[in-house]
Amino acid sequence: MSNKTLKGAVLGFPIEHSLSPLLHKTAFQLLDIVGEYTAIEVQGGKLEKFIIEHGYQYDYFSLTMPLKEEALELGIPIQIDVLGRHIQSLNTLVNRDGHWSATSTDGSGFLKALSNAGFDRFENVLILGAGGTARAVAGALDDIAGSVDVMRRSVRRSAAIASCFTKIECEFLDWDDQIDLRKYDLVVNTTPSGAADLVADNLASHTDAVLFDVLYKPWPTLLARRWSDAGGRTISGLELLLYQGIDQLNLVTSTSDRAIESELRIALSKAIG
Known about the structure:
Blueprint: E1 5-12, H1 20-30, E2 34-41, H2 47-54, E3 60-63, H3 67-70, E4 78-80, H4 82-87, E5 92-96, E6 99-103, H5 106-116, E7 122-128, H6 132-141, E8 145-152, H7 158-162, E9 171-174, E10 186-189, H8 197-201, E11 210-213, H9 222-229, E12 233-236, H10 237-252, H11 261-271
Parallel strand pairs: 1-2, 1-3, 4-6, 7-8, 7-10, 8-9, 10-11, 11-12
Antiparallel strand pairs: 3-5, 5-6
Helix pairs in contact: 1-10, 1-11, 5-6, 5-10, 10-11
């Protein structure tokens, strides 16, 4: 039995749907780690207050909407790594003896999910949305894509996502529910639940492309179901959750001595039916 004790939590709003507690608790059991991990509702604008009042009790936090961008501008000392500053999105805060550090494992988790599905290169990619998760995806695609378009719902975040690319000059498209997706071999949906439903209603009758939908509950999303019906390959956000979570765990403990990927996937899959 390990003598390592860990305490973590996922923070965000809404948070009741999150499967992060299941993932981390299951990992603790598999790795013989004494620990606890919970889901805590923290609304936008309240992250700094929560960390000041409660952060000392925790070893690490996972961040979800709407906190991935807010974490960049906290008025408390946090060492943000090069990746986090580059993509302007954070999903992990680690507390080491009262010193906080921050990064994002969304991009690495995204690439590992693609690799596990057998993909390591795409020519034409479309990202739906331009928020925190989209920026992590953009930074990861910079190394494996020939070109990337971003279909945005607002121009406000355009500069931030454009800066995530160093090798590719992305193109921005205004949101269009009737967009023709046939030129893309990968479409990544990073928008909230329901936002891409009208895109789904206007899909072509056949596609050979891959859809990576970062949502996982409920699954399949309308877009994923229509995509599969048209013959395309779909990858669930459950895969992103799995791999980004494993990368988070690697920041606070060692999982390298035990392959837990398949067991965690089974546990997560059972949870969403």
